[in-house]
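Worked example 3 (structure in, sequence out).
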């Protein structure tokens, strides 16, 4: 894939930031997965969440099978950052942009493995609950945290901040691919 061509295309999108990163620089840790297991109501209910995505070690191996990774970030402003409904209402726009980036990468000849922000809500009832395979694996994007990835450490390395202001929401996606 021609990174310069993709970079030109990314510049057309409302991205706050994007960066090509080495997947080996990502930190995978069960501490991040702990949030999923103890605080997320979607734990155990979808193929996009633990334990459906596999162990942290399996997720690390899956991501490590790719030679390159693209991190993208969008930001959105909300009236009150403490209003979780208002905050989550900004997520679909980020997911739409993530899908656009994935489509552009596929048009350039690569098949990205995408991690984003959701627990997947494509189906009214996830096939995971019935012990069946995912109906739309090509459309489902597990969340970054489900894989145990500490996004903050890579942001530090890149010189990016997670917090941009009191009412700003920052969303991230990782698109793994073979160069």
């Amino acid at each position: 894939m021609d990174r310069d061509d993709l970079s030109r295309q990314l510049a057309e999108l409302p991205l706050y930031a994007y960066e090509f990163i080495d997947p080996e620089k990502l930190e995978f840790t069960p501490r991040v997965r702990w949030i999923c297991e103890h605080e997320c109501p979607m734990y155990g209910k979808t193929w996009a969440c633990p334990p459906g995505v596999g162990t942290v070690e399996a997720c690390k191996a899956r991501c490590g099978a790719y030679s390159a990774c693209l991190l993208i970030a969008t930001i959105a402003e909300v009236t009150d950052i403490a209003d979780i409904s208002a905050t989550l209402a900004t997520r679909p726009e980020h997911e739409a942009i993530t899908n656009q980036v994935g489509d552009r990468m596929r048009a350039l000849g690569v098949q990205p493995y995408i991690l984003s922000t959701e627990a997947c809500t494509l189906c009214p009832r996830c096939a995971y609950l019935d012990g069946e395979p995912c109906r739309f694996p090509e459309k489902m994007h597990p969340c970054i945290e489900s894989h145990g990835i500490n996004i903050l450490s890579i942001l530090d390395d890149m010189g990016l901040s997670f917090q941009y202001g009191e009412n700003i929401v920052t969303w991230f996606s990782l698109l793994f691919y073979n160069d």
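Notes: The beta strands are 17-21, 68-77, 113-115, 168-177. The two ends are 6 Å apart (CA to CA).
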